[in-house]
Amino acid sequence: MPRKKAIKEKLTRVETFKERISLRTSLVLKDGTTIRIEPVNGKEDPREFQRFINTLTKEGTYLLVDKPVTLKEEKQWLQAQIQAQRKGEQIYLKALAHGHLIGDCFAKPGFGRNRRNINLGIAITKNWRGKGIGHILLEELIIRSEQKWHPKNIYLHVVSANKKARQLYESLGFLIIAQLPQWFEYNTTYLDEYILILDKKHIQQDKKACIR
Prior knowledge:
This protein is an alpha+beta fold. The chain has a domain at about 10-155: 3-Layer(aba) Sandwich (Aminopeptidase). It is built from 5 helices and 9 strands. It has helices at about 45-60, 70-85, 135-150, 165-170, 200-210, and strands spanning about 10-15, 20-30, 35-40, 90-95, 100-110, 115-125, 155-160, 175-185, 190-200. A 9-stranded mixed sheet has the order 1-2-3-4-5-6-7-9-8, sandwiched between helices. Strand 5 and strand 6 (about 115-125) form a beta hairpin. It is globular, with a radius of gyration of 17 Å. Residues about 1-20 have low confidence and may be disordered.
């Protein structure tokens, strides 16, 4: 697996049937900042998550949320994520710097006959983008999803105007399989949206690199 020079990874080793999968618990950036990677555990401060989502909304990122979230709304949402995590219905990871939430990501199976199709999502605050954090978080989601669900497909959505996110996804092995014309409402206009699926060959190459 290619490793970025700017990042040193602290790894927890987990044995699987025939191979060893590396679960990251933290990474150290080039400037020495330690980023902790943790699943939600019920000890989270809803105000921190409210600050996080409202910062992204104010920036005008390509999230579905398009207006400020109240503390009550965030408490209800966070509780639902914690419950889903405990039931094994999703993988929700948070990225912390200096004790503050600077990124999050999730993996969720589909419903019923789509249960082996896993949807990914990710968000990073502006000041922490371009440092390799998103790449590491998505890699971690893919590894944990493979371990937990053995999915048929891993997929995600991206708005056509979000070129940096698309580049990130493609660097991880995601391929565009569909385009939804004028699908995503943004600032009184409609943008195209892409559906990308992870190339399984890319996963196998990464697994082989991980166990060398």
